[in-house]
Amino acid sequence: MDEVVEDTVRYTYGTWRKQRGWKPLHIVDAEGCYFTDASGKKYLDFSSQLVCVNLGHRNRNVIEAVKNYLEKTPYLMPAFTCEVRAELSRKLVEILPPGLRKFFYSTSGTEANEAALKIARIYTGRHKIIARYRSYHGATAASLAVTGDIRRWYAEAVDTVPGTVFAPDPYCYRCPLKLTYPECGVACADYVDYMLSYDGNVAAVIVEPVVGTNGVIVPPPEYMPKLREITRRHGVLLIADEVMSGWGRTGEWFAVNHWNVEPDILTTAKGITSAYLPLGLTATSEKISEYFEDHFFPHGHTYEAHPLTLAAAVAAIDEYRRLNLIDRSRRMGEYLGKRLKEVGDKHPSVGEVRGLGLFWAVDLTKNQRSRAPFNVPKDKYSGAPLVVDQVAAEMMKQGVFVMSWINHLVVAPPLIVEKEDIDKGVEALDSALKVADEKTEKNAP
User: Fold this and answer.
1) E-only strand ranges, 373-417
2) What is the pLDDT of residues 182-236, one digit of tens each?
3) How far apart (Å, rounded) are the C-alpha atoms in residues 276 and 261?
4) Who has the most CB within 10 Å: 39, 117, 177, 227?
């Protein structure tokens, strides 16, 4: 173990894991769609790190924009303003879904969701939030409370805000209601209607329009419009968490655009600066912003609207446009999806391949007929070996990094990815899936 790794393990925490056995890879360089470790080995970044380096590594225009502003105004308290605060706000009005007209700038997706939940509760005067089980909205008290996955389990007794009610997910491959689309009539959305009819004091429904870490779940086309109609009818706000699905990742500026849905609040982060600097955004409707004209806005941070983060976002938006990356995500996403499905069809361990744009999941199963997963959340919680991690480890041996979570791989390369990069990643996946194939029930001893 080299000194950098040794001191990292000795003095810092590895997140969302038991600490024993952690040995992080020492990275020394990164450019484009690749990064390099201390031994000189080069890896294809097939998940854009945490689905955030959308522009690829070391985009010179973003770097220069930050350097220029660092020389000019390295910090301002948020009570002041500067050129990039106004410039970024004007650009956001142009590209966000219609109706979102006022913004709060923070430093992460977690903080963006904290702000959204606080705003929703104050604006409506109500406290409860409806979220979904296959979701991740952040690691601080309110955002963790609306997180449905195992990251809430450890902390919910000591570090969450009460008042969340969880709804079923539009996860058609393993429907929580044991139904089949389209015969189901999108019953998972109707269930939210039922909840709102019998559960009072609800301020908002928060959803990832395309679920991120928990499976890149693309809802049926009727789902988001139906959910929007239901929330409006009940006078409840709709919060779209686009921390991971925004910024061209799904082939639109924001995933809600696929269904022409206008949320009351939209949160995002990650790709807003291509993760070069930490920036979160909470965008609200004009109706919500009007409320705070004459009511106290009880929120703020030292690093709110930090000039360097805003400069990075302005430059990133310019790069998305200059490189035509939204359209490119759609085109390259079609190729990536085609290649992934070709590989999936060859392997008995692949249950479903699904996605939009350059945002895909390879969902594993030990039995294609029953759709039983190899592992479930409690396995991750307990630290049991996960089959999907073994597949990801095999891909790393071949120089391809891909993010794994419980029972699926998240394939989300930078939006600048080339076909030859996609081919390299898919070929590594094809080879690595043999590890899972050997563990299917058909092949089990």
Assistant:
1) 400-401, 403-405, 408-411
2) 999 999 999 999 999 999 899 999 999 999 999 999 999 999 999 999 999 999 9
3) 29
4) 117
- What three-state secondary structure class fits 357? coil
Nearest alpha carbon to residue 316 among 64, 137, 78, 102: 64
Question: Rounded CA gap, 238 and 231, in Å?
Answer: 6
Task: Determine phi and psi for 105, rounding to 5 degrees.
Answer: -100, 125
Q: DSSP H helical segments within 300-352, as ranges?
A: 307-322, 325-346
Cβ(65)–Cβ(311) under 8 Å? yes
Coil/strand/helix, residue 205? strand
Q: Which of 282, 351, 358 is nearest to 33 (CA)?
A: 358
CA torsion 86-139-252-425 (nearest 10°) is 130
Q: In the chain, what is the straight-line distance between the N-terminal and C-terminal CA atoms, in Å?
A: 37
Question: pLDDT band at 159, cuts 50/70/90?
Answer: confident
**Predicted confidence (pLDDT) per residue in 207-219, tens digit:** 999 999 999 999 9
Name the β-bridge partners of 268. 281
Say what the pLDDT of residue 156 is.
81
Query: Is the Cβ–Cβ distance between 351 and 371 less than 8 Å?
Result: yes
pLDDT tens digits, 32-62: 999 999 999 999 999 999 999 999 999 999 9
> For residue 387, what are the CA distances in angstroms to 172, 343, 364?
22, 18, 9
Strands 34-37 and 128-132: unpaired
Helix-helix angle 187-198:223-233, to 10 degrees = 10
Question: Pairing relation of β-strands 42-45 and 400-401?
Answer: parallel
User: Would you call 302 exposed, middle or buried from its count of C-beta atoms within 10 A (0-12, 13-18, 19+)?
Assistant: exposed
State pLDDT tens for residues 342-351.
999 999 999 9
Give me the domains of the chain, ranges plus CATH numbers.
3-55+324-437 (3.90.1150.10), 60-322 (3.40.640.10)
Q: Are 72 and 308 in contact (CB under 8 A)?
A: no
| The Cα angle at residue 33 between residues 30 and 37, in degrees rounded to 5 | 35
Angle at 110 between CA 219 and CA 204, to 5 degrees: 55
For the whole model, what pTM was predicted?
A: 0.97
Helix, strand, coil tally for the chain in percent (to 5):
40, 15, 45
Strand, helix or coil for residue 235: coil
**Measured distance CA(180)–CA(175) in Å, rounded:** 7
Helix (H, G, I), strand (E, B) or coil at 149: coil
